[in-house]
Write a structure and sequence with these properties.
The complex is a heterodimer of chains A (184) and B (720). Chain A is α+β, with helices and mostly antiparallel strands and 184 residues long. Chain A has one domain: Alpha-Beta Plaits, CATH 3.30.70.20. Chain A is built from 6 helices and 10 strands; from the N terminus they run βαββαββαββααβαββ. In chain A, strands 8-1-10-9 form a 4-stranded mixed β-sheet, with helices on one face. A two-stranded antiparallel sheet of chain A has the order 2-3. The longest helix of chain A has 10 residues. Chain B is an alpha/beta fold. Chain B folds into 3 domains: 239 residues, Rossmann fold, CATH 3.40.50.740; 209 residues, Dimethylsulfoxide Reductase, domain 2 (3-Layer(aba) Sandwich); 122 residues, Beta Barrel (Barwin-like endoglucanases). Chain B contains 26 helices and 27 strands. In chain B, the strands form 7 sheets. Chain B has a 7-stranded mixed β-sheet. Chain B has a 6-stranded mixed β-sheet with strand order 23-25-24-27-22-26. In chain B, strands 11-10-9-13 form a 4-stranded parallel β-sheet. In chain B, β24 and β25 form a beta hairpin. The radius of gyration of chain B is 26 Å and the shape is globular. Chain B starts with a helix and ends with a strand. Classes of the chains: A alpha+beta (184), B alpha/beta (720). Chains A and B meet through α1, β2, β3, α4 and α5 of A and β3, α3, α7, α8 and α24 of B.
Chain lengths: 184, 720
């Protein structure tokens, strides 16, 4: 098979396996020096039903590294940008903390760092990915909720999962082309 | 082991990510890829002992990553394990030895040299020994790789009173399975098709590899999962069926299951014939325990019990009734665990894939040290007399405290504590405080100023696990491993490992000869018999020596002798009968919840298991204080809404905390998380925040094992 020159990183999540243990959240904090009180990833919980017919579902989420990221579009300085492999990043030196991107993100995935007065968000742990490791949240997860990889590589687990399992994305109507895929 | 093969077996999505050569987009901060300098070691935040690789940056510990070579930890690291770094760099941690300068608990401390702390402690211990004999000293600790040195000091000193943690935890489950099978097996959740858990909240109270294997089993292999618990836990939310069973009636449910299986002849007859003793007595014994009777006890419909029993037996041998871990619940806990063991035996899941499997061990060597004389005095908890089947070397915590408070059979006046916070881990904090009050001396070894340390006379600061090397630990299991904890970074404060603290005391107590070795010598002796070439080098480099292949069926051999009295699996136990206990588990109903009160039940959260973890910022952010769970029905009656301050009172204590009105608990129970309401201001995030469950819990224990019974407390709840 001809080797693809372009990569497209994405994440596939199996929310049913999430046990809300916060390992991903704490691993991210440690890996990326995220201050207290703000988060690059989080686990939402939805509770329903009446005793004793109760249900809870957990939804782990982070930056969707969209194909068409609104945060990048609205950034007045070009600090928000996208790598060729799809990963959306912030150049902290160029960020003026105007928070336009925070408002523009349909997923509420960005935060204002109270220490640096710049905007922070999930980077898919580029520093780890570029040395051949998995993002910290993926590696640490006890229940293997997250699968990370290159969509362009037909042998990658993300490619294989998406070609064999039903899945959805969150808020497709926003038109951002999100790259977090949730298995159904 | 073949790590790649293992990862596939475990159902993990391992990514084969090649290195990516596209640095042209990077700014300077990201330009040079950081290659982590990893040092493999072993986590100490809970008893699972997961393997981690510590990544350093500029001499500081930057990140702890999971080490996939340990099959037990299944290549993961939980929130607590990730937060361990914050213990090291906690500005409020213990940084040098302290001697109390004011009254106990007043918080006035004098920082002292190690020499002074050792001299003072040795003098105090010697004074107590002179007056009351060595048995006048108590040495209590929770499990840890250096616990061996601490308890050896107590034994070398001549004290019979070495008190370990099992009687606050899993003593009843260990004893029940040992009395039945002669060993405590593991449960093969990686391969089980039908799993029943009663109160074992495996998705919030992580046990490796069970938690990971179960979520994979339920979600990927569609294993059937039945869960009984008075609370709707995360585990309940993942189960096929959640039954909010009436608390304390699990035994009725299990006996009725056995009744159905035997009545409908769904048992494994060949297995029972070949390997077990007492089938006829069992069949007779369970006759009255019909599903209709159990429905009245448990609140679970008879038709459901019948259906579950049939499905369980039909799925065997890939069906397990899971044992659980912290089994300190009711005064009949041992008999309930025995019934579980018998139920498992009846369907013949013993030593089968997907069933209950006796543990394998990775062999290791032993360091030979000079032995000491056995203590002359009997134990103060009188375990041999009152709990003859329990482990005398571990002791029984609550009966011990009661005897010490009474001064019977003799006075105990000095208490040394290692790595444990008895003011939180032992029920009835008021009585534990009384025990401290009546001590002439209390010494604590810990990494942080726990509440017990706050009330001590001397506090020895131990080096954090990332700052020290410990003995090699064997982790028995279906996938057994031996792990090494080795120093990742030099201690940043004036702290010492437990062994060196013990050696300083031993020198002054005239016990130097018993501790005349280094940790390196100890580890080297252990590594010599690891089943691998260059064992020491290997375990230092990898952190782990493991077997990847489970062995099933080795004990299903007609010539195999089980380590029981008869050499068979004992459904009926003569030893229990001789000791004056029911030889088959007889049902006794739990005490009824008195009018206007609630039963207090305990449990854990994945971020908070041990009381010492609540103040770590990354864990604390998710649970800033604890609240008391109350079902909407009684809450409406009492006029309580979420967020209201309420007073919760038992017969031994009262606390105030906020209410959480939730459908996720039975109307007759309340629940609160552990590890809050701290007295020590050095744990500032949780000091005086929320409430401590130990204040409310009353003293009760399991009759056979002496294990604390922590679900026997009834409380009143009132709006403040």
């Amino acid at each position: 098979m001809a080797k693809k020159s372009r990569k497209r990183y994405a994440m596939v999540l199996d929310s049913r396996k999430c046990i809300d243990c916060k390992a991903c959240v704490v691993a991210c904090k440690a890996e990326n020096d995220v201050p207290l009180g703000v988060y690059r990833n989080w686990i939402g919980a939805e509770r329903s039903g009446e005793y004793p017919r109760l249900r809870t579902s957990f939804d782990p989420e982070q930056c969707h590294h969209c194909e068409n990221p609104s945060c990048v579009r609205v950034c007045p300085t070009g600090a928000s940008w996208q790598r060729e492999d799809g990963i959306v990043l912030v150049k902290y030196d160029d960020c003026i903390g105007c928070k336009y991107c925070i408002i523009a993100c349909p997923y509420d995935a960005r935060y204002h760092n109270p220490e640096t007065h710049t905007v922070g968000k999930c980077t898919f742990c580029t520093h780890r990915v570029d040395r051949g490791d998995l993002p910290a949240c993926v590696e640490t997860c006890p229940s293997r909720v997250r699968v990370f990889g290159d969509l362009e590589d037909p042998k990658s687990p993300v490619h294989q999962l998406l070609s064999t399992r039903r899945h959805r994305v969150l808020k497709p109507q926003a038109g951002n082309g999100p790259q977090l895929y949730y298995l159904l | 082991m073949d790590r790649r093969l293992f990862m596939q077996v475990a159902g993990t999505g391992a990514l084969a990510a090649g290195s990516i050569a596209c640095p042209r987009f990077f700014r300077k901060a990201e330009a040079a890829p950081v290659i982590p300098a990893g040092i493999p070691t072993t986590c100490e935040l809970c008893p699972n002992k997961c393997s981690v690789i510590a990544e350093l940056r500029n001499g500081l510990i930057h990140k702890l990553n999971p080490n996939p070579e340990n099959p037990k930890s299944r290549g993961m690291l939980c929130a607590r394990g990730n937060a361990a770094i914050q213990q090291v760099y906690d500005p409020d941690r213990l940084k040098q030895p302290l001697i109390r300068a004011g009254a106990r608990g007043e918080g006035k401390w004098r920082p002292v040299s190690w020499e002074e702390a050792w001299d003072y402690t040795a003098r105090k211990l010697s004074e107590v020994k002179e007056k009351h004999g060595p048995q006048g000293t108590l040495w209590s600790s929770t499990e840890g790789f250096q616990e061996v040195f601490f308890k050896n000091l107590g034994m070398a000193f001549g004290s019979p009173n070495i008190l370990r943690h099992p009687s606050l935890c899993l003593a009843s489950v260990n004893l029940a399975y040992s009395m039945t099978f002669g060993t405590v097996p593991s449960f093969d959740l990686l391969n089980a098709d039908f799993v029943i858990m009663a109160g074992a909240n495996r998705f919030e109270s992580i046990i490796t590899p069970d938690t990971m294997d179960l979520i994979g089993g339920v979600m990927e292999r569609k294993a059937k999962f039945i869960y009984l618990d008075p609370r709707f836990t995360v585990t309940a939310s993942k189960a096929d069926e959640w039954h909010p069973i009436r608390p304390g009636t699990d035994l009725a449910f299990i006996l009725a299951m056995i009744h159905v299986i035997l009545k409908e002849e769904r048992q494994d007859k060949a297995f029972l014939e070949a390997f077990t003793l007492g089938y006829e007595q069992l069949a007779e014994h369970v006759k009255p325990y019909t599903p209709e009777w159990a429905e009245l006890e448990t609140g679970i419909a008879a038709k459901d019990i019948v259906r579950i029993a049939r499905a369980f037996a039909d799925s065997a041998p890939r069906a397990v009734f899971y044992a659980g871990r912290r089994s300190s619940w009711y005064t009949n806990d041992f008999q309930m665990r025995r019934a579980q063991a018998i139920l498992n035996a009846v369907v013949g899941n013993w030593d089968r894939q997907g069933g209950m499997v006796p543990n394998q061990k990775v062999p290791k060597g032993e360091f030979m040290f000079l032995p000491w004389d056995d203590p002359k005095a009997p134990r103060v908890d009188e375990v041999e007399k009152n709990f003859p089947l329990a482990s005398a070397k571990d002791g029984v915590y609550l009966p011990l405290r009661e005897n010490v408070l009474k001064g019977q059979p003799y006075p105990v006046k000095a208490w040394m504590v290692y790595k444990q916070d008895p003011l939180h881990s032992v029920p009835d904090q008021g009585r534990t405080l009384k025990m401290i009050e009546q001590m002439d001396f209390v010494g604590v070894i810990d990494i942080a100023m726990s509440d017990t340390a706050w009330f001590a006379d001397v506090v020895f600061p131990e080096s954090h696990y990332l700052e020290r090397t410990d003995p090699i630990e064997v982790l028995p299991g279906i996938w057994p491993a031996a792990v090494l904890r080795q120093q990742v970074a030099k201690p940043i404060h004036d702290t010492k490992p437990c062994l060196e603290i013990v050696q300083g005391l031993a020198k002054r107590l005239g016990l130097n000869d018993f501790f005349d070795y280094t940790i390196e010598q100890w580890v080297e002796a252990e590594a010599r018999e690891l089943p691998i070439a260059n064992g020491l080098e290997h375990i230092k480099k990898h952190g782990v020596v493991a077997f990847s292949e489970p062995k099933y069926g080795a004990t299903r051999n007609p010539v195999n002798r089980f380590v029981t009295k008869s050499g068979k699996i004992e459904l009926f136990s003569e030893r229990l009968q001789e000791a004056g206990h029911d030889p088959l588990p007889k049902y006794t109903p739990p005490a009824a919840v008195p009018e206007g009160r609630f039963r207090m039940v305990l449990g854990r959260k994945a971020t908070i298991t041990h009381a010492g973890l609540t103040h770590l910022p990354w864990l604390h952010e998710h649970h800033k204080e604890n609240d008391v769970w109350l079902n909407p029905e009684p809450a409406a009656r009492l006029g309580i809404r979420t967020g209201d301050l309420v007073e919760v009172a038992s017969q031994v204590g009262r606390v105030r905390l906020k209410a959480r009105v939730t459908e996720e608990i039975r109307p007759d129970c309340i629940f609160m998380l552990h590890g809050f309401g701290k007295k020590s201001p050095w744990l500032k995030r949780v000091h005086g925040v929320g409430a401590a469950d130990a204040v409310l819990l009353e003293t009760a224990w399991d009759k056979v094992s002496g294990n604390a019974a922590m679900h026997e407390t009834f409380v009143k709840v009132a709006k403040v």
